[in-house]
């Protein structure tokens, strides 16, 4: 079975969040199951070094954003070994900054043309194939790729089956109605039952309406987005598609994220050598100027610093965390006000709070290895990956009961503790008071070393890889092909 995955980012090449990790890991998980999955990406500057190693397999003269060529290249084995299809269109993608915005933080004004070009190129190769390879399934990820099923359907020709995966429904790709003609979309499809959303063109809605199947990244999130609270205005569209909506839990790449082999840690460890985790804690304390002799639990945050992630409430709860005897290590970037809150917390609590504003992939591994618990108080979270990394590293997740967080963390209630299956702490109210209450539970468990170690071992036993989820995707693909 051949699957064309279309996305705007893919780890380890280009990453702004969990989407990249999923797109980077899923093809390798599908390969042993008989699926040849190739990933189509915009050719950003970070990917330029791969171009000389590849082969031009298609050329497009009239994409919405102009001309472009498609270069197929096999990534090095130490970078996943997956087959990439790079849309080389310098006028669209050869830019400083991040994939979606420039150095000033503002979205590129032509993002609609940039990602419509990606989607249209994907649709075209579904018909024409590439060197004898032709996709049976087109799998589009998030709004940036969601027009691909629309371009396919517009042709009226028999097409591959299509899947759109929602990684975060809050990001929808909305642009003015004038872009419908500019992007070569059918004007008679611009209505409330099609491409139109509150007067605008919505890339994501268009894909949800026209794809053969819709998936999202956890079973709980699949239920949540059917409601006004979480559906971000698209709940009606999804309610009409409940028979073709599936929640498949994300996994993680357990080769990349493995404490037993992780070179970012001073000394690797596993469930039988948990004492070695203390060496990672010492290295983390040194990196963030935290007191290495402090005996309370060390919490970490690895996140975009936004209100969606509940980090405004956490910032308010820092005095309670410190007063009760905890330490906090923060790695992330985001809303300027929250960045300043965490900088100030570090200044006011020397040795107890350490903050690194920015992102560093290697440092995130050390954070997982060195902390005792990871805080994820999100107000909504489609799946989340940091709690899965935490489980695998024996760094107990403290999470809000939403989306994939609720699906992956077993709360340390009395029954779960007695059964030795508790893997973290789950709470319901994302406020400073709600976080303080769950922190008190964490401190009580930490003060009982045998209970804490049992939870660490249960967390590290929990399956977090792609084996089950990869099989679920294959089953879905097969059902679509009949």
Q: Can you give keywords for this protein?
A:
482 residues; Rossmann fold; alpha/beta; nine-stranded mixed β-sheet; six-stranded parallel β-sheet
Brief digest:
The protein has 20 helices and 18 strands. The protein is α/β, with parallel strands linked by helices.
Please explain how this structure is put together.
It is a single chain. With 482 residues, the protein is an alpha/beta fold. The protein folds into two domains: 2-251 and 467-480, 3-Layer(aba) Sandwich (Rossmann fold); 274-461, Rossmann fold. Helix content is 38%, strand content 20%. The chain has 20 helices and 18 strands. It has helices at residues 18-30, 90-93, 111-128, 142-145, 148-154, 179-182, 203-210, 219-224, 228-231, 235-239, 277-288, 311-323, 336-348, 361-370, 386-392, 403-408, 414-418, 432-446, 449-461, 467-480; strands at residues 2-6, 36-42, 55-63, 66-74, 83-88, 137-141, 161-166, 174-175, 196-197, 200-202, 213-216, 245-247, 298-305, 327-334, 353-357, 373-376, 396-400, 425-427. The strands form three sheets. Strands 3-4-5-2-1-6-7-11-12 form a nine-stranded mixed sheet, sandwiched between helices. It has a six-stranded parallel sheet with strand order 15-14-13-16-17-18, with helices on both faces. Strand 14 (327-334), helix 13 (336-348) and strand 15 (353-357) form a beta-alpha-beta unit. Helix 12 (311-323) runs parallel beside helix 13 (336-348) and helix 12 (311-323) crosses helix 18. The longest helix is centred in the N-terminal third of the chain and has 18 residues, at 111-128. It is globular. The two termini are 13 Å apart.
